[in-house]
Amino acid sequence: MPEAAVRLERFFGRFAKQPTAALTSGVLQETPTRFDWLRTGAAGLAAMLEAIRAARQSVRLEMYIFRAGTPGDAFRDALTEARARGVCVQVLLDAWGSHELPEDYWAPLTRAGGEFRSFNPLMLEHAIFRDHRKLLVCDETTAFVGGFNISAEYDGDGVANGWRDLGLRATGPLAAILAKTFDTMFARADHEHPRLARWWRQRTRDETVHSSEATILSEAPGPRHNPIINTLLNDLAHARQVDIATAYFLPTWRLARALARVARAGGRVRLLLPGKTDVAVSQLAGRAFYSLLLRSGVEIHEYQPQILHTKLIVVDRIAYAGSANLDQRGLRINYELLLRLPHAALAAEAREIFEEMLPHSRAVRLEAWRREWTFWERIKSYWARFLLSRLDTYLARRQLRQLR
Predict the structure, then answer these.
(1) What is the CA radius of gyration of the chain?
(2) Which of 87, 107, 109, 295 has its CA at a distance of 20 to 30 angstroms from the CA of residue 316?
(3) Buried b (16+ CB within 10 A) or exposed e, 105-134
(4) Which burial class, exposed, middle or buried, applies to 390 when counting CB atoms under 10 A from its CB (0-12, 13-18, 19+)?
């Protein structure tokens, strides 16, 4: 059995579905996955709805935030209609992120035979740990990952209306592997969280799943082996060009120093961060790193027209896409899903998307920042950083210890 299949068997507890193959010149070859960037939330939500309506075998939907109204009701109706025509439909939503939904919201789907589960029901002793993943897999052939949730604020172009966001569609063998990551989370949703904690204690490097086309970084709570941080650090070690757009920026010191080292060594590092935000304390905390990064030569831009919710990392010829922000929650506390894609053409297109956002952004200059960075602003920023990087992480570790 190939080594990759052994990894999948050990991680998921079952054999991975064999990828689609084609016979070319008498040789069995794997059909490559096609990747398409979905450049706005509106484009991503429309493509997801279309895929659900076209599904004939199975639909798996996992979201952090799902709200009633537009476009949520259209998704619920499409999922219910899919089940009515015989499609296996499973929906997994985070209990906190989607707590505004009425209790009977999914009754039409469940009456039709679909399955709905709420991840980590709200209880004070384990409320911190959330499923922040965003994933849709249809027929195990088409998958969507990215930053947008299913709610009205994501249904726009990010310039004239709606938050600025980004998604990625994967059509081909990789979708079947992503379906298995959903199955793992769906199976755990109804468990008591102590079981999740025991699983976390036993987790191994097999959580990072390697395929010929991508590395799937499936992150879980905990300060120990961290696939997202470690993979990023490895790529940054010899990087020459780094472009990062993230909604919430509060990196570990190791990541901040790694970005600074790339710039000091003559590489180009550009950060695109929110000028407007829905979480003011997160913006304050992230700005505590500005002086260090600007002095090192890192370029910082703040997006102006709308709230920036994009999660995009491009390191040389490698692109990252998924749900994780570069903050403490995305790197240490939440359940996250991130794809590392070593495709030069895909990375080049991702860099084009980054460039398209820059004209809508304000460049932060070191001298001007020193004038803006008053004593009172520094105090607020350092307290925000303490709250999110120290207190939030401390509470998460405390809850994790109690759950063991």
Answers:
(1) 21
(2) 295
(3) bbebbeeeebebbbbbeeeeebebbbbbbb
(4) exposed
Q: Is the dihedral of CA 224, 222, 335, 18 positive or negative?
A: positive
Selection from 215, 280, 288 nearest residue 7 by Cα: 215
Question: In the numeric block, which tokens belong to residue 239?
Answer: 């990087």
Q: What is the mean predicted confidence (pLDDT) over 103-120? A: 96
Phi-psi category of residue 309: left, alpha or beta, with phi > 0 → left and psi -120 to 50 → alpha? alpha
Q: What is the DSSP string of 132-200?
A: ---EEEETTTEEEEES--BSGGGSS-SSSSS-B--EEEEESTHHHHHHHHHHHHHHHTTS-HHHHHHHH
Segment holding 30, helix H or strand E = strand 27-30
Instruction: Look at residue 400 and tell me if it is in a domain.
Output: no
Q: Which long-range contacts (CB under 8 A, 24 or more apart) does 345-348 make?
A: 346/35, 346/37, 346/319, 347/314, 347/316, 347/317, 347/318, 347/319, 348/317
In 3D, which of 277, 215, 240, 245 has the Cα closest to residue 353? Answer: 245
pLDDT digit string (tens) for 304-316?
999 999 999 999 9
The answer as to whether 42 is a domain residue is yes
**pLDDT score of 9 more than 80:** no
Which residue carries 């499609």 as its tokens? Answer: 87
Per the structure, how many domains does the chain have? 2
* CA 274 from centre of chain: 17
d(Cα 289, Cα 302) in Å, to the nearest integer? 14
Q: What is the pLDDT of residues 373-387, one digit of tens each?
A: 888 888 988 888 888
Q: Can you tell me the mean pLDDT for 114-131? A: 81
Same domain, 181 and 251: no
Structure pTM?
Answer: 0.87
Pick from 160, 185, 217: which residue ends a domain? Answer: 217
